[in-house]
Amino acid sequence: MDIDISLDTPIEELVKSFPEAVRFLSSRGVRCIRCGEPLWCTLEELLDEDGIENPHDLIQELKEYIRKRGEPAEDSK
Amino acid sequence: MKELLKKLNIKEVNAGACSGQDAWYEDPEGQELVSYNPSTGEPIAKVIQATDKTYDQVIEQAVQAFKSWRMTPAPKRGQVIRDLGQALREYKEPLGELVTLEMGKIRAEGLGEVQEMIDICDFAVGLSRQLYGLTMHSERPAHRMFEQWHPLGAIGVISAFNFPVAVWSWNAAIAAACGDTTVWKPSSDTPLTAVAVQHICNIVMADHGLQGIFNLAIGRGAVVGERMINDERLPLISFTGSTQMGRRVSEAVARRFGRTILELGGNNAIIVAGDADLEMAVRTILFGAVGTAGQRCTSTRRVIMHKSIAKELTARIIKAYGQVKIGNPMEEGTLMGPLVTKAAVEDMMAALETAKKQGGEVICGGHRLEEIGGQFVEPTIVKMPSQTEIVHNETFAPILYLLEYEDIEEAIRLHNEVPQGLSSAIFTTNLLFAEKFLSHEGSDCGIANINIGTSGAEIGGAFGGEKETGGGRESGSDAWKGYMRRQTNTVNWSKELPLAQGIKFGD
User: What pTM was computed for the model?
Assistant: First the structure.
């Protein structure tokens, strides 16, 4: 599965293509969605604003998370 | 669905930039935006987003049209708005249903939203004969001093998905009465309702031989949104959205000394006093927290209840939640539809995880309902031990946090502790509590209600809030002043040249 996410990825595109990224990033203190709408910035800008020190590592972890999330969500009823 | 789209002139692929009936702008380089039905996940139709080229065409038309529109007498402008209101009456049902189809609120709320558009048009028609300025007594003899309100220019309106048409109309109808033109960037989640509204506006404009009064530029925030907030041709940006985005908008517009009207996040609470009518409180909390699937700016996010009634009230709210029919928002009897996007569902689940980590106990709901569709969730109640960090954040989903208090001072302290300040309410039969809540030391919100909830505002009042809600006011009362520029005038009709403050200069 090809997961095309980089520091330049606009958040608007990220949450549309990979909505599961919202939950992963939220667990790291990074919120992509506010008032139900994605922020207008790039992933790099957002990570920088939230003080993430190793953004490249975080993106790798995010990709891994998305790969695993191909399975049914654990919070389904 | 096809019949509905046909009634509103929505095609399979639609242009996303427009200034009038014969002015739909297309650029082969424009990217496609697909609008999905949140109930089914199926695509509804596509829009070609505005490019730099088509955006500029729209802005030029809006700026050009402003030059003649500002010189059209305001009551004549009111006639155009009256006809827009009439057209919206004719299209109320299909437009309301498209709102439901595209963003997922229940049909009754979709129709209610269009009614709100009609109401604000009626208000703006009256306003067109009431753009009053004051007259002041001059301190100098034979001088007349007064103030006038002049049109401002082409106004940028950036709206959100949750009220995809009403918020535009609050701005566009008032701005039009004030002699301004508007350029609308709707949410990328609800482009089709915007296209439908533009078609209706085009009919009305064409009937009056007009173009460029109501304009549309659909596109991503990072593209069209950024251009608008940095565009000196737009002296005012009215932005509805999150506090985080509002900060970005505010900074960009302030840098060029433009004006903003900001309607940002809310974190609205209802205080339920020990003497409250619990039956009324429960019905109100249900509508406030579950209506529009908790995706209103004014949704009830917190209930701050007196310890003496906490147990009973909690039980009653849980019982009421159990009776909420969740499903197809077009169906009669459904009270809650889906969340707008999959990302919104993820955001809700992330918030619940955090709430649990902070000591919260999910006492009702908390799950996705994938058997109905990928974007349906249960309305959820979380009992919190205290007002932790997650409660201070707005999550745009049907999550209701329950908190308890001992005395009214503590209730108001908890109420005002959050950074947002949009809407608030207290349920009480105690006159002293009610008055205290509305007093200078009471609610710090832009909207404060007694024995009615936090959501469901009427158009006649000014809508907006304080603190991180942004301080802007839209819709009724004197919110129109934000769309005009004030000019103070002094006319000397004497043959002398007296100076103010009695200053003698070279006499």
Answer: 0.96
